[in-house]
Design brief:
Length: 196
Amino acid sequence: MPTGYTAKLMEEGQSFNDFILGCARAFGACVTMRDDSSDKPIPEKFEPTDYHVKKIEEAKALLSTLQNMTNDEKIRFGENKKSEEVVSSEAWLEKRQVENSRLAGMESQVKAWTPPTPDHKGLKDFMLQQISISKNGGEYIQEEIRKAKAKAPMSYYIQTVSDANRDINYHTEENKKEIERVNSRNEWLRQLRNSI
């Protein structure tokens, strides 16, 4: 029975070079292509993604905006962030409460159900176990809401500046790693091509 790598060879015949390049999709530099169509050619050279570069640009733009704010703008910014966090946390808590209510309703029904045979008791126990492990505790969310309400607006501003700086450093380092990985993949591919 042919595999995704031997189907063309078995059905139509295939050159050694095409076969080895097709199989290379499962290894090293080409592993990200393993799920691509077998007709998609392996590129001569891989290029780094621009994901980290875009994230660096976004963080720098945000940082610039934040640093150019007046004190009043910084406070308004912090008040808006605080409001967003409180609203988001309250919505999260409400959603968890609705989910818990649904679970409680189902738990009552399951507890009231009489399994038709002793062989079905395991099913009832399993359903109750699944409900039990799915219940959401609201204490953590309530504590987060309390903390958010107590936090000063300038703390939100300062945290956002800190986050932007962290993002710049993180994505700069990750972009460097991405370039190194791509260079290594390209070298692996160059060596493979030179061998065939």
